[in-house]
Amino acid sequence: MVMTAWRRQTGTRKAGWLALIAAALTVGLITYGSWVRASGSGLGCPDWPLCEGSLVPTLEGDTAIEFGHRVYAGITMAVVAAGAWVAWRSRQDDRLLAKVVVAAFAAIVFQAVLGGITVLTELDGDVRLAHLSIAMLTLALLTAGAVRGLDVPGSASPGVRISSGLVVWAGVIVLVGGSIVSQSLSGACPGLPLCDERSPLDAAWVHGVHRTAAALLLVALVGLGVWLRKHRGTKLATGLHHSATLFVALQIGIGVSAITQSLPTELRVLHLGVASLIWWVVVAQWSLALKARGVVA
User: Most buried among 3, 135, 175, 188, using CB within 10 Å?
Assistant: First the structure.
């Protein structure tokens, strides 16, 4: 029954479903990558593209964690490749969809190369930040492809200007958070709500920006939620907004808990996992606003 229903789908719709599945896998991949970093397993495979000189190494400890990440990335890349192939074959029906999903495939290939460079440079901070940035770009492209391919109805509320602002805002918070990790400053600000005299100046600045921006984003989302009660969008757009608000509140709680508990691995992993969910949701909302405006019609 499932295969029969799949065969009845149009090429663009198949590409949309594959993009959606790949987006969900990408969220998991980003979270898994955080586990690799937080557990100190980044050099569990000290070489690339092989692992300890073989295709399948002895799966123990850090090696098992890092190799599992590579396998997961390979599966995700295969799904993105399938979506790109289907979208490209149906490009006569929707050229923009084909461009977006093919761009997502190019991005995830580049991300894989950056992953290799990260290993070969022994976890260089700048390369790790670039790796995270391309992962978020891949997720954004897949999300836009899913919205277009599945022909999800657009939403005029919130509009393009507001949703664009939320995307930029959330993106800056993610990148600043990534820079904290890339500079090895995660534990350099033990004070709350902002850093205190125990923190060096550079740590105080970057943590201060990250925490203040996150708090202001929550305030903006709550205020926007009140406004949306009078200017209702689609159920999906409204649900995405409420999800974003909930995720940001949860994220702040996780961040505070991580600081008070001396940055346990579980909370550090969860922190980036929820960050990827926030990014996914705001990009989806932005895509719906663009579609309602006819920008991507």
Answer: 135
